[in-house]
């Protein structure tokens, strides 16, 4: 029987939402095709998360419980994934388009003689072909790409699918693996999070993003307050990253992070295509801009035309009341 193998990324002891989104769709395809669905978990605590994988449709969960993966280094990750893909012989390998997947997917495909369709917004099985849609030209257009190679890897942009629970057997299978950690040229000493990085931007359900209209520290304080009231992660346009008002890790867009929250506040952001390439998948977009013709309003679900220094204090005060009454 053919199978779909889902590579699950883990962060802070949990399977990333973007991995579960991709696996939920893979499960729908596997059931329609009569294929099995398998998941991969790597790391010393891999087996602890097998139940979650089973709860999202995995028939089998292939694990390598080697602590070498806790180092987040590419060399063991590549070797571990190669071992699992070769052991499972799937028809299709699906992964969320995370930073570490982007790092290793090409090399993994070469080692496994696979075709790669990276960073797609949708994927389907059509007879012998795996067919995907891939945002191109700063997400202005969708390109249809397909492969009929016997083994295809796809990486999926976050926010492309809903997470759906579906009971699979979740049978844990240990995959034999050996890696000589002494061969590593790099060592992970410490993971440093930027100050105030309380919510992971690429996984956040609510994002407050600031643009040039936010102007200075007083505007930033209003943005911080809105984020703290709504439990949001803070993002930024490149304009305010370049001025140093926000860190580079907050940049959203073509050359920054891709986010797909349920709610996205765009404060003082014009809506240049290079910015919207990173947030157009957001479910509800609230734009605050003093220019009624700003392109961001073409994308926004709700538009507030006005000065953010006037609107944000009012909005924050009202939202505080709403949150307090919950
Ligand atoms: C190759 C390349 C890659 C790029 N990658 C990225 C990327 O990844 N991410 C990104 O963001 N950009 C990127 N850019 C830059 C992008 O083209 C825009 O220049 C940038 O997004 C503009 O940021 P902004 O909207 O904050 O600023 P602006 O375009 O200057 O817009 C500021 C907006 O704030 C409004 N405003 C001003 N004052 C107020 C106020 N008091 N209250 C309310 N509204 C106000 C204005 O009306 C305006 O609409 C890239 C550019 C290139 C060439």
Which descriptors would you attach to this protein?
2 domains; seven-stranded parallel β-sheet; 9 helices; five-stranded parallel β-sheet; Rossmann fold; 326 residues; 29% helix; alpha/beta; binds flavin-adenine dinucleotide
Structure description:
With 326 residues, the chain is of the alpha/beta class. The chain folds into two domains: 3-183, HUPs (Rossmann fold, 3-Layer(aba) Sandwich); 201-324, TPP-binding domain (Rossmann fold, 3-Layer(aba) Sandwich), CATH 3.40.50. Helix content is 29%, strand content 26%. A seven-stranded parallel sheet has the order 7-11-6-1-4-5-12, sandwiched between helices. Strands 14-13-15-16-17 form a five-stranded parallel sheet. The protein is globular and about 60 Å long. The termini are far apart. The structure holds flavin-adenine dinucleotide.
């Amino acid at each position: 029987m053919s199978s779909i193998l889902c590579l699950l990324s883990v962060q802070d002891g949990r399977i990333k939402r973007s991995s579960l989104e991709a696996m939920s769709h893979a499960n729908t395809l596997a059931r329609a095709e009569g294929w099995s669905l398998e998941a991969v978990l790597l790391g010393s605590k891999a087996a602890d998360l097998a139940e979650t994988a089973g709860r999202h449709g995995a028939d089998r969960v292939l694990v390598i419980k080697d602590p070498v993966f806790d180092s987040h280094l590419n060399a063991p990750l590549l070797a571990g994934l190669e071992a699992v893909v070769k052991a499972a012989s799937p028809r299709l390998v699906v992964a969320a388009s995370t930073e570490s997947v982007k790092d290793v997917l090409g090399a993994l495909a070469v080692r496994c003689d696979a075709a790669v369709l990276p960073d797609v917004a949708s994927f389907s099985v059509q007879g012998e072909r795996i067919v995907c849609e891939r945002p191109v030209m700063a997400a202005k257009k969708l390109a249809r790409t397909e492969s009929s190679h016997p083994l295809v890897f796809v990486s999926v942009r976050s926010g492309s699918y809903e997470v759906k629970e579906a009971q699979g057997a979740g049978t844990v299978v240990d995959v034999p693996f050996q890696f000589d950690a002494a061969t590593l040229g790099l060592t992970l000493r410490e993971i440093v999070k930027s100050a105030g990085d309380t919510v992971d931007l690429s996984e956040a359900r609510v994002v407050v993003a600031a643009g040039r209209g936010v102007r200075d520290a007083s505007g930033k304080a209003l943005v911080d307050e809105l984020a703290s009231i709504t439990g949001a992660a803070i993002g930024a346009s490149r304009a305010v990253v370049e001025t140093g008002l926000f860190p580079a890790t907050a940049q959203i867009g073509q050359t920054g992070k891709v986010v797909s929250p349920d709610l996205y506040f765009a404060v003082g952001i014009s809506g240049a295509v290079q910015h919207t390439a990173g947030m157009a998948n957001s479910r509800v977009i609230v734009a605050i801009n003093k220019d009624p013709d700003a392109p961001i309003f073409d994308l926004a679900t709700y538009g507030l035309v006005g000065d953010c220094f006037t609107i944000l204090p009012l909005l924050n005060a009202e939202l505080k009341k709403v949150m307090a009454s919950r």
